Amino acid sequence: MKNFFLFIAYFMTSFLFAQKIxxxxxxxxxFGCESFSERKDLISCLNKNLNNDVQKEIxxxxxxxxxxxxxxxxxKLSFVINKEGDFSDISADGAxxxxxxxxxxxxxxLQNKMNRAEVHIxxxxxxxxxxxxxHLNLPVRYEAxxxxxxxxxxxxxxxxxFTLKTDDETIEVRIDKDFTIRTIGNNGxxxxxxxxxxxxxxxxxxxxYATAFENAFKTGLINVTKGKVDDKEYQIQIKNFFExxxxxxxxxxxxxxxxxxWAEYYEYKTKKEFNQSKFAQxxxx
Length: 285
Hints:
- There is one protein chain.
- This protein is α+β, with helices and mostly antiparallel strands.
- The protein has two domains: about 5-150, no CATH class; about 155-285, no CATH class.
- Helices cover about 25% and strands about 35% of the residues.
- The protein has six helices and 16 strands.
- The strands form five sheets. A four-stranded antiparallel sheet has the order 1-8-4-5, covered by helices on one side.
- A hairpin with a 5-residue loop joins strand 6 (about 125) and strand 7.
- Helix 1 (about 40-55) packs across helix 3.
- The longest helix has 21 residues, at about 95-115.
- The radius of gyration is 22 Å and the shape is elongated.
- It starts with a strand and ends in a 10-residue tail after the last helix.
């Protein structure tokens, strides 16, 4: 499934300083905009270049959207280019918590690259020509070019995103039809509700989720779920689900238990192929 992102940027040209709204004398100079000095040119260049960079960082959302049957999503990024020329105070407001997380990740990933390269955005200047914080908004919208009407809705109330194991319990991370993220624990005797989260970043900030996500980034694999199909025990994993590259080989692996060990049974190259398979039912709740 081919997808594209629509980016529409609206930049607030005022900021809150000492509890008063002040006029920005000079906008931040984003990378590639160093040759401009006029305000309108700096805004236009910032708009264009930051949009391009954000798009590159979140192209991988098409992998997630395909798996979860998400055809459209939108979010408003709010952030600050601070006095040091870094991104800070990043937040996202939208109906889909998964897309909110991805939108936020774009600026976090860009900031990480800046830190490694030891570079900064030239900060905005106030009327005294001193560096100042500049508050910005960036609406981001995703839409699938090709919509698959046969799979536009979950055939169940929730779908399992990941499964985490601790010494005491198994935890399923689920998403429902309203795109609410919920965690459900199971200690072997009963199933119980643990919590709900507005986005993946909120959840990934606490253990055991933080450790599990870190391992997924390192290994490229994350456990989805396991269960029986046709009286055989199967386990499902996703490879490169969090890979920040739209061209990465993201696939869904199905393992079957054979004589007490797990052996790879099938690899689905596309989520559409998996969603039509008999194993998709294992992810529905």
